[in-house]
Amino acid sequence: MGTLAQIWRHPIKAHGREAIVSARLDPSRALPLDRLWAVAHANAKLSPSEDGWHRCPNFSRGASAPLLQALECKVDQASQTLTLTHPQKPGITVNPDDANDQARLIGWLQDLTPDGRPKPVAIIKAQNAMTDSQTVSLSLINLASNDAIGAGLGQGISPLRWRGNMLVAGLDPWEERSWVGKNIRIGSTEFYIRKEITRCRMTEANPETGERDADTLGALKRGWDIQEMGVHAVVTKAGEITVDDKVEVL
Fold first, then answer.
1. How far apart are CA 171 and CA 142, in angstroms?
2. Is the pLDDT of residue 250 over 80?
3. What is the pLDDT of residue 50?
4. Residue 160 located in a structural domain
């Protein structure tokens, strides 16, 4: 049995993170305010869809713009604003639903995209969440698996590289891989573990600096012949999750 050690939300896909203590979850929904917005780039090919979901290559992400990994985000629900900060520049506070603020944010993001990569052009809002998979889920990261990857690299690595929602302590390394196809409970919420999460070059970037400094994909391949880290957890029974809740397989 593990313990929910941290909860993280990412209001704008690939653009900042915020730790929270608890959340109310509903079936087939994302963590509230997680990936509710995304930043479309100049090469995006967005087509109408029933659920408003679009494939991740349409959006600016850390795989092609590693400096984005160092963004942090603070939500002010009273004013309906987000404050984004980055170690290389002054922060910005915006309402991501306001057209003028969207333009300000797009301008602010320009120099975080490398030359030769398509620049940000628009803020897109999801109906549920702009997760990488169309089946909306929360991502669960086993902290022991993260440590095992760090050991293989010969350097400690932050679990924030994986941009997970629920970070779990007290498990054996890779124990979460055996949960695929099973149900788990955290707090009063139940989840179906749908599949493992295939990883990209985003995870090579340090979440404090945005610099690529760890061959995470190479470590996964060399150590375990995989490209996966963490699992997709689909909410099946509504409830609350809170830091320090027990994590149990049903």
1. 7
2. yes
3. 73
4. yes
CB 20 within 8 A of CB 7: yes
Q: Which ranges constitute the DSSP H helices of 29-142?
A: 99-109
Task: Please tell me the total count of domains within the chain.
Answer: 2
Question: Is 143 among the domain residues?
Answer: yes
Tell me the residue range of the domain where 194 lies: 2-8+20-28+133-249
Identify the pLDDT of residue 1: 84
Distances from the Cα of 169 to the Cα of 5, 41, 111, angstroms = 6, 36, 37
Cα–Cα distances in angstroms (integers) from residue 170 to residues 23, 89, 235, in the given order: 21, 37, 22
Residue 227 has pLDDT above 80, yes or no: yes
Q: Where are the alpha helices (DSSP H) in the chain?
A: 99-109, 143-153, 216-224
Residue 14 lies in a domain: no
Q: At what angle do helices 143-153 and 216-224 cross, to 10 degrees?
A: 90
- Contact of 230 with 139, CB cutoff 8 Å: yes
- Examine the fold and report which residue of 125, 149, 184 is the final residue of a domain before the chain moves on: 125
* Residue 13 in domain: no
Q: Is the domain of 243 the same as that of 137?
A: yes
Shared-domain flag, residues 157 and 116 = no
Report yes or no: 121 and 41 within 8 Å, Cβ to Cβ: yes
pLDDT band at 46 (very low <50, low <70, confident <90, very high): confident
Lowest mean pLDDT among 39-43, 130-134, 170-174, 204-208: 130-134
Q: Which residue has the tokens 């290559």?
A: 57
Give pTM, 2 decimals. 0.96
The DSSP annotation for 193-249 comes to EEEEEE--GGGGB-TTT--B---HHHHHHHHHS--EEEEEEEEEE-EEEETT-EEEE
